[in-house]
Design a protein that fits this description.
Structural class: alpha/beta
Strand content: 25-35%
Order of helices and strands: HHEHEHEEEE
Number of helices: 4
Strand order of the largest sheet: 1-5-2-4-3-6
Distance between the termini: 52 Å
Largest sheet: 6 strands, mixed, barrel
Amino acid sequence: VEIYSKTLESLGQDPLPDYKEPAESPVSTPDLAEKYPLILTTGARLPVYHHTWLRNIPWLQEIEPHPRIEINPKTAAQLKVDDGDRVTVESPRGSITARAKLLPGLHPRVAAMAHGWPDPSNPNMLTDHVNRDPIFGSTPLKSILCRVQKIQ
C-alpha cells in the first residue's frame, strides 16, 4: 500500500490521499442541483454483456433487453415513475432514454446506469468532458447531476 506517492509529488500533485468535492455536485454547484437533483453514477457492468460487445445476441437481449436507469422507489414515486416506465435522463450536456428499474437499496438522491448502451441510451452523452481529473484525465462518471422524467 502506498500512502505517500513520490511520483505524484514529482508531478506537482498532492502526494497524500485527499478528498476533493466533484466539480459538479449538490455541494459545489447547488444552483445546478436544483434543476438536476439526482446524482447519476455510470460505468457499472452488466454480466451478460462485455462493454459494448454481445448486444446483438438474441438470447442475451432476452436477459437484458433495455437500457435501464436504477432509482429508489421513493424517488420514483415523487417523479410519478413506475418500474419499467420509459424515461428521459437529462444532464446539462444532453438527454438519453432508458427504462426505470426501482431498487430500494439505492440512495434516494442517486441514480445508476450501466455503460455500453448505444445511442439514444448512451450515458456517455451525459458526462462532463471539461472537468477532468487533473492527474488521470478521466471524466467524472460517478458524479453527474441529472434529472429523470417519465416519457408520456
